[in-house]
Amino acid sequence: xxxxxTEDQELIASTAREVxxxxxxxxxxxxxxxxxxxxxxxxxxxxxxxxxTGLAFPEEHGGVGGDFLDVCLLFxxxxxxxxxxPLLVSVACCGLPVxxxxxPEQKERWLRVIADGQVVTAAPLPWDRPGEGPVAVRDxxxxxxxGTATFVPYAASAENILVVARLDDEPHAFWVDASDVxxxxxxxxxxxxxxxxxxxxxxxxxxxxxxxxxxxSLFGAAATCAEMVGAAQHVLDMTVQYATEREQFGQAIGxxxxxxxxxxxxxxxxxxxxxxxxxxxxxxxxxxxxxQEVAMAKAWVSEAYxxxxxxxxxxxxxxxxxxxxxxxxxSEHAMTASLSFGDADLHYExxxxxxxxx
Length: 358
Hints:
Distance between the termini: 30 Å
Strand content: 15-25%
Order of helices and strands: HHHHHEEEEEEEEHEEHHHH
Strand order of the largest sheet: 1-4-5-8
Number of strands: 10
Number of helices: 10
Shape: globular
Largest sheet: 4 strands, mixed
């Protein structure tokens, strides 16, 4: 694996960082606190105009012709700036499973609307409750979906929802019209405004097979790792900067060995997270089997990000716990991102089972 970026990828990352840094004050997690949508509509429109929503899709379907690794550079910068957006769930969880496993007709239909900026979201089966979640049945040539999908991000803003449901005991992914479901908002510390989505005999607009259904969680977990890498990098950067500026006993606290060790351990976790996350992302981009790599990445990065935030608080002291400081935004994000698409324990268990260690 070559972790160096191409010239085009460097441009994607630098442009994204510049755009998001300039918008963070008006579109960041702090600015969106209390906003019912949870994201900036103005920034979303700008993302669409910049081609971010179609970056990973083929040009013939309204995209830019990039790949999953390219768009993960955007997710990393969204994490770094702590700017909430439906980009990850729309592109990674909904668009890429269609791009990889959909029919030509499905690709033309769904990739184009996602690239054009329609907000869509995905509802994978609940990872913590095996056997639960929505169920689909055949109704002639169509399918009807019933049940409740939990913690669906940005569901209140979505026009369509890709619901993973069991059909004959096997997961399939069903596109449903968001106006046909009942939404129950859930209060969480996250910025993605999740809802429980209740489906009462909803007729599906389209259906994707088991491979696409599994890809919803696979792409989602890997993309979340990229987002966490960016956020952890920001926590490291702000902590190092604080350690060089904050003085105690007549000298910068960064000159104390204990603080230096904290920053060094944070840097190790950030670098390790970057390596293991982009190994999984790279394999997914190459269309290789990446189930084990995604499980390893999600388990490691989830715990590493939380460690980075904890050490960041140690160095910052009391100021890091105040509402005025940005560090608490990253700590809250670490709690929610580590649980998204399965927590570390789940992925350790899945990996152990895959390796026949159970």
